Amino acid sequence: MTPHRLHRILSLTVALALATGITLASVTPAHAAAPSNDNFADAVTLNPAVTGSTDVYGTTVDATTQAGEPSHDPDGATPTPGSIWYSYTSAFDGNLTLSVTADADYDSVIAVYVGYAVGSLTRLAANDDRSSTSTAASIVSLPIHAGWDYKIAIAGKAGVRSFTKLTYRFSQHPTNDPVSSPETLGVNWSQTRWNVNATAEAGEIPAIAGQAASKSVWWRYQPVHNGTLSLTTSGSGFDTVLAVFRQEALPFSFGSLTRLASNDDANPSTSTSAISGLELKANKTYWICVDGYQGATGEITLTDAWVPSSRPDNDDFADATALNAASDLVGDNATATLEPDEPQHLTGGNASKSLWYRFVPPTNGAVTVDLRGTAFDSVLSLYRGTTLSGLVKIAENHGTQTPPIVWSRLSRVSVQGGVHYYLAVSGADGSSGSVTGTFRFSTQPSAVSLTPDHGPAAGGNWIEVHGSDLDGSNTRVYFGDTQAQVEVPNEETQSTLVRAKVPAGLPVGPITVTVATNGGNAGTTLSYIVGVPELTALSARYVRVGGGQRVQVVGADFLGVPSVSVGGMPATGVAVSSPTSLSFVTPKHSAGDAEVRISTSVGQSSASTAGWLTYLDPPKVSKLSRKKGPRKGGYHVVVTGKGLGVVSKVLVGPKKAKFVLSAGRIDVIVPKITKKATVYIRVVTPVGTSPKAKAARFQYR
């Protein structure tokens, strides 16, 4: 088996081990055998034709150190026993980035050389730890030339062995040449990179004002806390320039960058650069640029020192923490301070050590802040404004830590959409400790309508409340000052519809209905009328066109001195028996339907199917289709006349006759009679009986 075939099998085995988390401690080799690429002369050739990043797996288990082999540690002295070797030759000039990862307890090193014998190599780059928190990983990046044979050594310190994964990537330019692919700045760390083959991008802001960008490379840093950053390129192999920018807006563009600091030469005796004590803010994005003075290139050593601030990140008004509609308040004000123009947060007292938060409501609404769990004598203050000196206090609360404990709280404070608000959490008389609390914003609800908008004086009936931004069963509905029971008929529509039970004991008449949530009261109030009369039944369905007929009414809330209208005409003789019963005398009206309405000082009854009368003309027979007929009966006589639209019965003489009513015509089946006689055909309706008239005379033969 060839060394390269053996290495391929080993690579697959190592890849499986790394993927499944197997460590060397759990692997027992069948026999001791050095890796195929243990010696310099047996270096595994890396494929230069691949694009992107490529992984190659290996192991330093049973690897040895050759006679004359150098230390691969960056210091050139620390022993690095147990190395494996790779080689790389590119057809093009460019940049090569190599990184190695291994078991967590393996302190890897990587080094790149040129040369033809292990004892006479020239080192080009080396790295021990990728960052302060990553000792098992190492990385180097360097410019390379076409046709050169580069040798790559991977080893470990302290005699430890491990499976390894080598990731390599070739590019025509340094990987952090474009600002879209920056390196991440380590914390209190030193990195070695190159700007050979780097370029300047279109629109790029130069590191030094007035000097065009030329061979720039980029780093990015996003601190999680306030602090100060110092940078130096001391140790770099060329004349550097250095700058730090802050990103002001999204998405990124060079136009969104503000240059905070820049430097060409740290002092007159050096060509490297330094920036010291630059204040950075938490959660902001900063960009670090290293360029060559007048196009200079070479190896860059970038070292940074980060010192977190001893004060809270939101100690200053300008650094207020942004809040959303539902935010948790956390922090500690032990080292917080007061600014020169800061207002007094406790009226009539003294509050200091403030923390600041900011919020811009998207719409009108209300905020609730609760410091339940805060471990000191806290003060809550809510302000409106955009500058510290121009703040206007709109709410304040000071709880107490003496039993019984009352937590500081602001409840449902109205705020306006688009306005800037600032919340200060401070300590009374310098009290301090950890902050625990919640901030909640709710949109102001809108009340649109009530269905129905009136009801009985007794209450207890349910009505629908329509609106927007309602809060389901947490919606509060007030009839005057009395809160109603609220329920949700459908959870899917609970933001636009709830039901309210009208309270008992409300005063008769119109009453204001207020709808509220944690977002405050609705901008408009609604009106509900208590005690509007209700008509549920009439004693008659049909009445005479001439009027004068007394009708009984059953309903509710017939209060005071009611009036009755029938088809818009006032009725007479209104007599109230009780709040649920009255009677009236019908007025004259033309034939047809007429609606009955009851009115009191509170209002008028609503339309109801039970509240209709039909006026009828008195019946009158004007013609019979035949005037004579045999005594045996059973034949038909068609009766026409007036007021024959509603017929109760038809009499032929004293006898009831069968009939069919159709379009005001009555088809009568004449009943049998025993003797000859002359009789009258009479029609009975709900308003009377047709008179005996010549036109209604019929003769039995």
Automatic annotation (TrEMBL):
The keyword Signal applies. Residues 1-32 form the signal peptide. InterPro entries: Ig-like_fold (IPR013783), Ig_E-set (IPR014756), IPT_dom (IPR002909), Plexin (IPR031148). SUPFAM superfamilies: E set domains (SSF81296). GO terms for biological process: carbohydrate metabolic process. Keywords: Signal. Gene3D superfamilies: 2.60.120.380, Immunoglobulins (2.60.40.10). Residues 444-529, 532-616, 618-701 form the IPT/TIG domain. GO terms for molecular function: semaphorin receptor activity. Pfam families: TIG. This is IPT/TIG domain-containing protein. The lineage of its organism: Bacteria, Bacillati, Actinomycetota, Actinomycetes, Propionibacteriales.
